[in-house]
Amino acid sequence: MRTRFTEMFGVRHPVVQGGMMWVGRAELVAAVAEAGALGFLTALTQPTPGDLAKEIERTRRLTDAPFGVNLTILPSISPPPYEEYRKVIIDAGIKIVETAGANPVDHLPHFEDAGVKVIHKCTSVRHALEAERIGVDAVSIDGFECAGHPGEDDVPGLVLIPAATRRLSIPVIASGGIADARGLVAALALGADGINMGTRFMCTVEAPVAQEVKERIVANSELDTRLIFRTLRNTARVAANTVSAEVVDIEAGGCEFADIAHLVAGARGRRVFEDGDLDAGIWTAGQSQGLIEDIPTCAALVRRIIGEAEAIIRDRLAGAIEEGVRV
């Protein structure tokens, strides 16, 4: 299954495991790469640029296949040393980077000079057009269904993906609410060149998160997420638990970020993934939970998605056209 994405980024399958805080580590990324998809280490999961260099080397000991690094750029009073992380990425010979958050324009010349291709994550058509204008190689467009930050426009993928692909000339990766072959086929039909899955890859054997998290994702439905930070205009979709419910309740009465900071601290979310205490903090999960029914290896997951997608295209869609049957 070849697309502009597979040709440009040198991977076998049009499937991406995007950067996920605390989750995008060597064991998962290497397994995704070995499966023929594109995985991303999450730079800021590593405490220092030096730790990122070690994680890149650890990944290379596990796979010879292509993989990338996610660099999420967020406004902060005390920002991480982004330039140092960028230097590690370039010096390590990484050739694919996924940027997210703020505009990556200051980083692009450095990546371009080093021959690094950049995919920028966007939540709106206007941001995707700006990313294309400043010179990224591809965009990942996140629909409202996605885990993490879906933006403030609340446009679901069925509308957002074709709205983006009809106006962009660079490859588009569809993200948000995708967990299986049907999502891949739909994304291709909407004009995308591949799919990005986060929650689905978090629920695999190799994902470095507690088994309790994976089992909860399987048990959850598409209704088991909460939108927090809505009143602060920084919406985030997270798993439904006691902490996210408390945040929503506090926001309903009006609050400043300082009023909920103790509940949403990243260290508490990390405890969820590491200790399996599902109510220790907030943790991100998308509505695609409702489509996830098992915990496969990355190899089995990618093989199943590609095989079933080919069957849908060959048997259901092509057959419907040839025979004139109603689909």
Structural account:
- With 327 residues, the protein is of the alpha/beta class.
- It has a domain at 4-205: Alpha-Beta Barrel (TIM Barrel).
- It has 14 helices and 10 strands.
- The protein has helices at 4-9, 26-34, 49-62, 82-91, 108-113, 125-134, 157-165, 181-189, 199-202, 211-219, 242-252, 257-264, 266-275, 298-323, and strands at residues 15-17, 38-42, 68-73, 96-101, 117-122, 138-142, 172-175, 194-197, 225-228, 236-239.
- The strands form 2 sheets. An 8-stranded parallel beta barrel has the order 1-2-3-4-5-6-7-8, surrounded by 5 helices. It has a two-stranded antiparallel ribbon with strand order 9-10.
- Helix 2 runs parallel beside helix 3 (49-62), helix 8 packs across helix 14 (298-323) and helix 11 (242-252) runs antiparallel to helix 12.
- The protein is globular.
- The mean pLDDT is 96.
